[in-house]
Structure formats: structure tokens, C-alpha cells
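C-alpha cells in:
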């Protein structure tokens, strides 16, 4: 009985030592499998950049929108209209454009800090960072 216990103890000790040696010498594992250790400084820098980039992208998606830009003062609709004049609309279903403050603009352009969101046959919808508003032809 003593011999059996001694044999089992020796086998367990050998197994623990082998496991410890393998754990020290084994390459690190990632969630995609075994990863080889970088051999040069450049490879280590590149691996660190990839890791930081993935972490930053994950952190950026955590934040939510406040609803308005706190650094842009809120303007009333009358104050918005004072700066912009809708002179005309060049209507085309595929490529609509408008004449604002005597310059031709299209969807996505920025005029006096206002982004053009949409152009219709008789109106232009703009966004000043706090909300959408529209200019109509008179």
C-alpha cells in the first residue's frame, strides 16, 4: 500500500514539473490561438500599436452623444436666418444644388458653419450643430 502511494506521488510530482516547464516555455495564447513571441523590437512595437488601436476603438464606442455641441451657442431661428440667404434652387433629383449667399452649394457642403443636410424643390435643410432648420424660397 505504501509503495502505491509513493508511486502515485512521484507520478504527480513529475506531471506538475512537466506542466510547469511547458507553461514557462510555451508561446503566449490569444483569443485567436497560439501567438509566436516577437523576435525583434520592431515586431514588439507593431504588436503594441495593434493592441492599443483595438482598445481605443472599443473605448470610442462606449460614449454617447450629448444631443448638442456645448461649445456652439444656441441660436434662435431668426438669428440663423439673418446670416443665410437662399437665393435659388437648382433642382435635379440626382444632384440637387442651391444658391446660398450667392454661392452654389450641394448636400454635405458647409456654409457659415451650417452643414447642408437636404435640398428639396422649394427648401433647403441645414444643420448648425445644435439641430436642423430649413430655409424656404419666397
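Residues out:
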Amino acid at each position: 500500500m505504501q509503495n502505491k502511494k509513493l508511486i502515485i506521488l512521484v507520478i504527480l510530482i513529475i506531471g506538475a514539473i512537466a506542466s510547469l516547464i511547458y507553461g514557462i516555455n510555451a508561446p503566449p495564447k490569444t483569443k485567436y490561438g497560439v501567438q509566436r513571441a516577437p523576435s525583434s523590437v520592431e515586431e514588439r512595437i507593431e504588436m503594441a500599436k495593434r493592441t492599443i488601436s483595438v482598445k481605443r476603438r472599443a473605448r470610442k464606442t462606449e460614449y454617447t452623444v450629448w444631443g448638442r455641441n456645448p461649445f456652439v451657442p444656441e441660436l434662435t431661428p431668426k438669428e440663423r436666418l439673418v446670416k443665410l440667404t437662399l437665393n435659388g434652387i437648382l433642382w435635379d433629383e440626382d444632384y440637387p444644388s442651391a444658391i446660398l449667399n450667392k454661392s452654389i452649394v450641394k448636400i454635405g457642403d458647409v456654409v457659415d458653419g451650417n452643414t447642408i443636410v437636404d435640398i428639396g424643390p422649394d427648401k433647403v435643410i441645414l444643420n448648425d450643430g445644435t439641430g436642423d432648420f430649413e430655409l424656404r424660397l419666397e
